[in-house]
Amino acid sequence: MSAPSAAKPPSAAKAPSAAKAPPFDPGDPLGLDDLLTPEDLAIRDTVRAWAADRVLPYVADWYERGELPGVRELARELGGLGALGMSLTGYGCAGASAVQYGLACLELEAADSGIRSLVSVQGSLAMYAIHRYGSEEQKERWLPAMAAGETIGCFGLTEPDHGSDPSGMCTRARRDGGDWVLTGRKMWITNGSVAGVAVVWARTDDDGGEGGGDIRGFLVPAGTPGFSAPEIIHKWSLRASVTSELVLDEVRLPGDAVLPGAVGLRGPLSCLGHARYGIVWGSMGAARSCFESALQYARTREQFGRPIGGFQLTQAKLADMALELHKGILLAHHLGRRMDAGRLRAEQVSFGKLNNVREAIEICRTARTVLGANGISLEYPVMRHATNLESVLTYEGTSEMHQLVLGKALTGLDAFR
């Protein structure tokens, strides 16, 4: 038997040619835009263009003056974009995906944390509370106007003496016939003095009335006798934002002012979880703005006869900033997909908030060193973002609280007390 001849490949069979990689994009070094749908990109670009037109030219002046002029007009414009309560469905809400809402938060906070806070408190706290826990009558009364930005909402949970531990709240709601009477104070309330309705959390009386000592949510319309919202001034963070105290002095509300679906702390905490998710994205917007400023500055600022971006130490800073920025955006995107699939856990939101805000602050501080003395000027956004992020670090749960959330999840042991 003769030996078989060596097989020859068919002439038509050729090794597949490697796909040509696109050029490296300093603005998207990981190619994360590939994860987004055309609709995702359209929403992102729409919000980015609005912020570039309506916020960026003015926000340094707003920040320096410590005010947010025209907030009601801005709210109506944001409502026209579909950015208010955008991940909610029905009642005039956009019904967008969690990822699309996150992209909007990123673009808004790239302009300023105060603008993103306006949207987060409106949609993720006030509107979300009504949408999830309100009666049909409450939803019909408030949500369409809030989605359009015609009515601004606020969310009253934090108190002067109770922040991280809301279970100790002192605000009380007692029954008086068919009415509720609320007394207490809330502190550090975004949108408070411009809100048409406040979602206020209070501990009910324990004399056998409805709730029996439980924490309940109440809808308090602006102008209700005994209710006031003095604005907090002398802030050095979130200066382009409306921050207020809520004062409730024997505020009488009808029996149907209570949110029927929320009993106990689970109600307000679920709202906070929704808002924290927006912060996971938004903090990366502030970080991106600072990184882009540092990158542009490094390309054009000359020392020792050449751009400082040509020095190894500056390049090391830029590389580290880009690394953490885009890792954070990738983390936010992953959590968004989990939320859209109904698989996102509160511990995972804590993971994202803890990491991304912490890294955003470090990116801002590093960017400040690249800009040198110019980094403290409002001609650049870096110091404004850095001071804003000091508030973002502690609201919707301090870093320590999120560390303890993760610690409990990892060990099974509760270290909060």
Provide a descriptive summary of the structure in words:
It is a single chain. The protein is of the alpha+beta class and 417 residues long. It folds into three domains: 32-152, Butyryl-Coa Dehydrogenase, subunit A, domain 1 (Orthogonal Bundle), CATH 1.10.540.10; 154-264, Butyryl-CoA Dehydrogenase, subunit A, domain 2 (Beta Barrel); 267-411, Butyryl-CoA Dehydrogenase, subunit A, domain 3 (Up-down Bundle). Helices cover 47% and strands 14% of the residues. It contains eleven helices and ten strands. Helix 7 packs antiparallel against helix 8 (312-340) and helix 7 (266-300) runs antiparallel to helix 10 (382-394). The N and C termini lie far apart (86 Å). Mean pLDDT is 92; it is low at 1-7 and 207-211. Residues 264-410 form the Acyl-CoA dehydrogenase/oxidase C-terminal domain. InterPro entries: Acyl-CoA_Oxase/DH_mid-dom, Acyl-CoA_Oxase/DH_mid-dom_sf, AcylCo_DH-like_C, AcylCo_DH/oxidase_C, AcylCoA_DH/ox_N, AcylCoA_DH/ox_N_sf, AcylCoA_DH/oxidase_NM_dom_sf, Glutaryl-CoA_DH_mitochondrial.
In short:
With 417 residues, the chain is α+β, with helices and mostly antiparallel strands. It is built from eleven helices and ten strands.
The CATH class designation of the largest domain is Mainly Alpha
What composes the largest sheet?
Answer: 8 strands, mixed
Q: Helix/strand-derived class? A: alpha+beta
Number of domains: 3
- Helix proportion: 40-55%
Annotation, overall tally of beta strands: 10
What order do the helices and strands follow? HHHHHHEEEEEEEEHEEHHHH
Q: CATH-wise, what's the superfamily of the largest domain?
A: Butyryl-CoA Dehydrogenase, subunit A, domain 3
- The CATH architecture of the largest domain can be given as Up-down Bundle
The helix tally amounts to: 11
Estimated share of beta-strand residues: 5-15%
Mean pLDDT: 92
CATH third-tier fold name of the largest domain: Butyryl-CoA Dehydrogenase, subunit A, domain 3
Distance between the termini: 86 Å
Q: Uncertain regions: pLDDT < 50 for 5+ in a row?
A: 1-7, 207-211
The coarse silhouette is: globular
Write down the Rg.
Answer: 25 Å
